[in-house]
Amino acid sequence: MNIRRLSPAAALAGAAAMGLTTLTACSNHTGDGRTDGKLDVVASFYPMQFLAQRIGGNHVHVSTLTKPGVEPHDLEISPRQTAQLSKAGLVVYLKGLQPSVDRAIGQAGPRHVADAASYTTLEDHGTEVEGEEGHEHAHEAHEGDAAADPHIWLDPVRYAQVAEGVGKALRKADPDHAAAYKKNTAALVKQLGALNDDFKTGLKGRDTDTFITTHAAFGYLSERYGLRQEAISGLDPESEPSPARMRGLHTIAEKDKVGTVFFETLVSDKTAKTLAGDLHLKTDVLDPIEGIGKASKGRDYFEVMRSNLTALRKALGAG
Asked: What CA–CA distance (Å, rounded) separates 305 from 319?
Protein backbone atom coordinates (compact mmCIF):
# COMPACT_ATOMS: atom_id res chain seq x y z
CA MET A 1 0.00 0.00 0.00
CA ASN A 2 1.53 3.31 -1.03
CA ILE A 3 -0.15 5.90 1.17
CA ARG A 4 1.54 9.23 1.81
CA ARG A 5 0.65 11.59 4.59
CA LEU A 6 1.22 15.09 5.80
CA SER A 7 4.07 15.17 8.32
CA PRO A 8 4.41 17.93 10.93
CA ALA A 9 7.77 18.76 12.44
CA ALA A 10 9.20 15.51 13.76
CA ALA A 11 9.17 15.07 17.53
CA LEU A 12 12.51 13.34 17.90
CA ALA A 13 13.50 14.14 21.46
CA GLY A 14 12.02 10.92 22.82
CA ALA A 15 14.32 8.66 20.82
CA ALA A 16 16.95 8.28 23.50
CA ALA A 17 14.36 7.63 26.19
CA MET A 18 12.87 4.82 24.13
CA GLY A 19 16.19 3.00 24.06
CA LEU A 20 16.64 2.95 20.30
CA THR A 21 19.84 1.51 18.86
CA THR A 22 21.64 3.66 16.30
CA LEU A 23 21.58 2.13 12.84
CA THR A 24 25.06 1.66 11.41
CA ALA A 25 26.35 0.55 8.05
CA CYS A 26 27.66 -2.97 7.66
CA SER A 27 28.28 -5.59 4.98
CA ASN A 28 25.75 -8.20 3.91
CA HIS A 29 25.37 -11.14 6.35
CA THR A 30 28.48 -10.33 8.38
CA GLY A 31 28.56 -11.32 12.03
CA ASP A 32 25.94 -13.43 13.73
CA GLY A 33 23.13 -10.87 14.12
CA ARG A 34 24.14 -10.10 17.71
CA THR A 35 25.70 -7.28 19.69
CA ASP A 36 27.25 -8.05 23.07
CA GLY A 37 25.53 -11.42 23.02
CA LYS A 38 22.06 -9.97 22.41
CA LEU A 39 20.00 -10.52 19.26
CA ASP A 40 19.87 -7.44 17.01
CA VAL A 41 16.24 -6.80 16.04
CA VAL A 42 15.26 -4.11 13.55
CA ALA A 43 11.61 -2.99 13.66
CA SER A 44 10.00 -1.03 10.85
CA PHE A 45 7.86 1.31 12.99
CA TYR A 46 6.48 1.70 16.50
CA PRO A 47 3.86 -1.10 16.78
CA MET A 48 6.48 -3.61 15.59
CA GLN A 49 9.13 -2.10 17.86
CA PHE A 50 6.79 -2.38 20.84
CA LEU A 51 6.23 -6.10 20.24
CA ALA A 52 9.95 -6.78 19.80
CA GLN A 53 10.85 -4.94 22.99
CA ARG A 54 8.12 -6.47 25.13
CA ILE A 55 8.71 -10.03 23.92
CA GLY A 56 12.48 -9.83 23.52
CA GLY A 57 13.10 -8.20 26.89
CA ASN A 58 16.71 -8.20 28.05
CA HIS A 59 17.83 -10.65 25.37
CA VAL A 60 17.52 -8.25 22.40
CA HIS A 61 18.77 -4.94 21.09
CA VAL A 62 15.87 -3.26 19.26
CA SER A 63 16.28 -0.45 16.74
CA THR A 64 13.58 1.19 14.66
CA LEU A 65 13.67 2.45 11.09
CA THR A 66 11.00 5.10 11.78
CA LYS A 67 11.98 7.74 14.33
CA PRO A 68 9.46 8.98 16.95
CA GLY A 69 7.11 11.65 15.60
CA VAL A 70 7.71 10.72 11.94
CA GLU A 71 4.70 9.52 9.97
CA PRO A 72 5.72 5.97 8.95
CA HIS A 73 4.28 6.16 5.42
CA ASP A 74 6.76 8.98 4.67
CA LEU A 75 9.81 6.86 5.47
CA GLU A 76 12.51 6.51 2.83
CA ILE A 77 15.20 3.93 3.60
CA SER A 78 18.85 5.00 3.39
CA PRO A 79 21.69 2.75 2.16
CA ARG A 80 22.95 2.58 5.76
CA GLN A 81 19.60 1.27 6.94
CA THR A 82 19.47 -1.29 4.14
CA ALA A 83 22.91 -2.49 5.21
CA GLN A 84 21.71 -2.73 8.81
CA LEU A 85 18.79 -4.88 7.71
CA SER A 86 21.21 -7.34 6.13
CA LYS A 87 23.08 -7.75 9.44
CA ALA A 88 20.04 -7.96 11.73
CA GLY A 89 19.30 -11.16 13.58
CA LEU A 90 15.58 -10.50 13.00
CA VAL A 91 13.56 -7.89 11.11
CA VAL A 92 10.00 -7.23 12.32
CA TYR A 93 7.80 -5.36 9.85
CA LEU A 94 4.34 -5.10 8.31
CA LYS A 95 4.43 -5.84 4.62
CA GLY A 96 2.48 -3.35 2.53
CA LEU A 97 2.56 -0.45 5.00
CA GLN A 98 5.92 1.05 4.02
CA PRO A 99 6.93 0.31 0.42
CA SER A 100 10.49 1.53 0.98
CA VAL A 101 10.92 -0.98 3.81
CA ASP A 102 9.55 -3.81 1.66
CA ARG A 103 12.03 -2.95 -1.10
CA ALA A 104 14.96 -2.66 1.32
CA ILE A 105 14.21 -6.04 2.90
CA GLY A 106 14.12 -7.59 -0.55
CA GLN A 107 17.53 -6.08 -1.31
CA ALA A 108 19.12 -6.87 2.07
CA GLY A 109 17.90 -10.46 2.44
CA PRO A 110 18.02 -10.60 6.26
CA ARG A 111 18.47 -14.05 7.80
CA HIS A 112 15.15 -13.95 9.73
CA VAL A 113 12.04 -11.85 9.13
CA ALA A 114 8.70 -11.58 10.93
CA ASP A 115 5.97 -10.15 8.70
CA ALA A 116 3.02 -9.07 10.86
CA ALA A 117 0.67 -9.28 7.88
CA SER A 118 1.28 -13.03 7.68
CA TYR A 119 0.08 -13.69 11.24
CA THR A 120 -3.51 -12.45 10.84
CA THR A 121 -6.03 -11.56 8.12
CA LEU A 122 -6.14 -8.20 6.39
CA GLU A 123 -9.31 -6.58 5.09
CA ASP A 124 -10.36 -3.64 2.94
CA HIS A 125 -11.80 -0.92 5.19
CA GLY A 126 -12.13 1.81 2.58
CA THR A 127 -15.13 4.09 2.64
CA GLU A 128 -17.88 4.03 0.04
CA VAL A 129 -18.50 7.63 -0.95
CA GLU A 130 -21.19 6.73 -3.41
CA GLY A 131 -24.50 5.06 -2.73
CA GLU A 132 -26.61 4.62 0.35
CA GLU A 133 -25.34 6.78 3.21
CA GLY A 134 -21.67 6.23 2.26
CA HIS A 135 -21.23 3.64 5.00
CA GLU A 136 -18.00 1.81 5.48
CA HIS A 137 -17.58 -1.53 3.79
CA ALA A 138 -15.15 -4.30 4.62
CA HIS A 139 -14.08 -7.54 3.06
CA GLU A 140 -11.14 -9.87 3.37
CA ALA A 141 -8.39 -8.57 1.13
CA HIS A 142 -6.55 -10.80 -1.30
CA GLU A 143 -2.81 -11.12 -0.91
CA GLY A 144 -1.13 -8.09 -2.43
CA ASP A 145 -4.37 -6.11 -2.54
CA ALA A 146 -3.36 -2.44 -2.56
CA ALA A 147 -6.56 -1.54 -0.71
CA ALA A 148 -5.82 -3.76 2.30
CA ASP A 149 -6.07 -1.88 5.60
CA PRO A 150 -2.76 -2.30 7.51
CA HIS A 151 -3.96 -1.02 10.92
CA ILE A 152 -4.24 -4.46 12.53
CA TRP A 153 -2.58 -3.34 15.79
CA LEU A 154 -5.64 -1.23 16.69
CA ASP A 155 -7.60 -4.45 17.26
CA PRO A 156 -6.14 -6.03 20.43
CA VAL A 157 -7.23 -9.50 19.28
CA ARG A 158 -5.41 -9.25 15.95
CA TYR A 159 -2.44 -7.61 17.62
CA ALA A 160 -2.24 -10.58 20.00
CA GLN A 161 -2.12 -12.88 16.94
CA VAL A 162 0.77 -10.83 15.62
CA ALA A 163 2.49 -11.01 19.02
CA GLU A 164 2.28 -14.81 18.89
CA GLY A 165 3.89 -14.76 15.45
CA VAL A 166 6.69 -12.41 16.51
CA GLY A 167 7.31 -14.60 19.56
CA LYS A 168 7.74 -17.64 17.35
CA ALA A 169 10.07 -15.71 15.05
CA LEU A 170 12.23 -14.69 18.01
CA ARG A 171 12.39 -18.28 19.24
CA LYS A 172 13.53 -19.42 15.80
CA ALA A 173 16.12 -16.65 15.48
CA ASP A 174 17.46 -17.11 19.01
CA PRO A 175 16.61 -20.61 20.30
CA ASP A 176 18.90 -20.23 23.32
CA HIS A 177 16.33 -17.87 24.89
CA ALA A 178 13.20 -19.55 23.56
CA ALA A 179 11.74 -20.12 27.02
CA ALA A 180 11.99 -16.43 27.91
CA TYR A 181 10.39 -15.38 24.61
CA LYS A 182 7.56 -17.85 25.10
CA LYS A 183 6.92 -16.56 28.63
CA ASN A 184 7.01 -12.91 27.54
CA THR A 185 4.68 -13.61 24.63
CA ALA A 186 2.14 -15.24 26.91
CA ALA A 187 2.27 -12.27 29.30
CA LEU A 188 1.76 -9.77 26.49
CA VAL A 189 -1.09 -11.76 24.96
CA LYS A 190 -2.76 -11.82 28.39
CA GLN A 191 -2.46 -8.03 28.65
CA LEU A 192 -3.95 -7.62 25.19
CA GLY A 193 -6.82 -9.88 26.23
CA ALA A 194 -7.47 -7.62 29.22
CA LEU A 195 -7.40 -4.58 26.92
CA ASN A 196 -9.95 -6.26 24.66
CA ASP A 197 -12.16 -6.88 27.69
CA ASP A 198 -11.82 -3.23 28.72
CA PHE A 199 -13.00 -2.08 25.29
CA LYS A 200 -15.95 -4.49 25.27
CA THR A 201 -17.04 -3.39 28.74
CA GLY A 202 -16.24 0.29 28.28
CA LEU A 203 -18.24 0.69 25.10
CA LYS A 204 -21.45 -0.83 26.44
CA GLY A 205 -24.55 1.33 26.78
CA ARG A 206 -23.47 3.84 24.16
CA ASP A 207 -25.89 6.28 22.54
CA THR A 208 -24.53 5.80 19.01
CA ASP A 209 -22.27 3.41 17.13
CA THR A 210 -20.99 5.99 14.66
CA PHE A 211 -17.90 8.16 14.83
CA ILE A 212 -16.24 10.41 12.24
CA THR A 213 -12.47 10.45 11.89
CA THR A 214 -9.84 11.89 9.57
CA HIS A 215 -9.19 8.68 7.66
CA ALA A 216 -10.13 5.01 7.79
CA ALA A 217 -7.53 3.82 10.32
CA PHE A 218 -10.01 2.29 12.74
CA GLY A 219 -11.76 -0.33 10.64
CA TYR A 220 -10.50 -3.32 12.61
CA LEU A 221 -11.32 -1.66 15.92
CA SER A 222 -14.80 -0.77 14.67
CA GLU A 223 -15.41 -4.29 13.41
CA ARG A 224 -14.29 -5.81 16.73
CA TYR A 225 -16.62 -3.69 18.90
CA GLY A 226 -19.61 -3.17 16.63
CA LEU A 227 -18.86 0.47 15.80
CA ARG A 228 -19.24 2.29 12.49
CA GLN A 229 -16.29 4.33 11.31
CA GLU A 230 -17.00 7.19 8.92
CA ALA A 231 -13.78 8.52 7.45
CA ILE A 232 -13.45 11.93 5.85
CA SER A 233 -10.73 10.86 3.41
CA GLY A 234 -10.93 7.06 3.26
CA LEU A 235 -7.62 5.23 3.63
CA ASP A 236 -5.62 8.14 2.21
CA PRO A 237 -5.68 11.18 4.51
CA GLU A 238 -3.92 13.34 1.92
CA SER A 239 -6.81 13.10 -0.51
CA GLU A 240 -9.36 15.89 -0.45
CA PRO A 241 -12.90 14.69 0.32
CA SER A 242 -15.39 15.31 -2.45
CA PRO A 243 -18.33 17.68 -1.96
CA ALA A 244 -20.59 14.59 -2.12
CA ARG A 245 -18.63 12.98 0.72
CA MET A 246 -18.88 16.10 2.87
CA ARG A 247 -22.63 16.31 2.27
CA GLY A 248 -22.91 12.64 3.17
CA LEU A 249 -21.05 13.20 6.43
CA HIS A 250 -23.41 16.04 7.31
CA THR A 251 -26.34 13.67 6.85
CA ILE A 252 -24.67 10.87 8.81
CA ALA A 253 -23.75 13.17 11.70
CA GLU A 254 -27.34 14.35 12.06
CA LYS A 255 -28.96 10.94 11.65
CA ASP A 256 -26.57 9.00 13.90
CA LYS A 257 -26.21 11.64 16.63
CA VAL A 258 -22.51 12.18 16.09
CA GLY A 259 -21.14 14.76 18.51
CA THR A 260 -17.39 14.59 17.87
CA VAL A 261 -15.05 14.63 14.87
CA PHE A 262 -11.72 12.92 15.56
CA PHE A 263 -8.34 13.89 14.17
CA GLU A 264 -4.84 12.40 14.61
CA THR A 265 -1.54 13.49 16.10
CA LEU A 266 0.59 13.02 12.95
CA VAL A 267 -1.92 14.25 10.34
CA SER A 268 -3.24 17.76 9.62
CA ASP A 269 -6.45 18.50 11.54
CA LYS A 270 -7.65 21.20 9.11
CA THR A 271 -10.40 19.23 7.34
CA ALA A 272 -11.65 17.64 10.57
CA LYS A 273 -11.94 21.02 12.27
CA THR A 274 -13.64 22.53 9.22
CA LEU A 275 -16.27 19.78 9.23
CA ALA A 276 -16.73 20.05 13.00
CA GLY A 277 -17.15 23.82 12.71
CA ASP A 278 -19.76 23.48 9.98
CA LEU A 279 -21.77 21.04 12.09
CA HIS A 280 -21.09 22.70 15.46
CA LEU A 281 -19.44 19.53 16.74
CA LYS A 282 -16.57 18.96 19.15
CA THR A 283 -13.14 17.69 18.09
CA ASP A 284 -10.86 15.22 19.87
CA VAL A 285 -7.87 12.98 19.19
CA LEU A 286 -8.20 9.33 18.20
CA ASP A 287 -4.64 8.09 17.84
CA PRO A 288 -3.77 5.35 15.30
CA ILE A 289 -0.55 4.76 17.28
CA GLU A 290 1.74 4.69 14.28
CA GLY A 291 4.36 6.39 16.43
CA ILE A 292 4.79 7.81 19.93
CA GLY A 293 5.69 11.50 20.01
CA LYS A 294 5.24 14.62 22.09
CA ALA A 295 1.56 14.91 21.13
CA SER A 296 0.75 11.30 22.07
CA LYS A 297 -1.62 10.82 24.99
CA GLY A 298 0.46 8.12 26.61
CA ARG A 299 3.96 6.70 26.80
CA ASP A 300 3.31 3.36 25.14
CA TYR A 301 0.77 1.31 23.20
CA PHE A 302 -1.39 0.39 26.18
CA GLU A 303 -1.60 3.93 27.54
CA VAL A 304 -2.57 5.39 24.17
CA MET A 305 -5.14 2.65 23.51
CA ARG A 306 -6.79 3.35 26.85
CA SER A 307 -6.76 7.07 26.02
CA ASN A 308 -8.52 6.15 22.77
CA LEU A 309 -11.10 4.17 24.74
CA THR A 310 -11.76 7.18 26.97
CA ALA A 311 -12.21 9.41 23.92
CA LEU A 312 -14.59 6.94 22.25
CA ARG A 313 -16.66 6.48 25.41
CA LYS A 314 -17.11 10.24 25.68
CA ALA A 315 -17.91 10.71 21.99
CA LEU A 316 -20.33 7.79 21.78
CA GLY A 317 -22.08 8.45 25.09
CA ALA A 318 -21.05 5.13 26.63
CA GLY A 319 -21.38 4.24 30.29
From this structure: 18
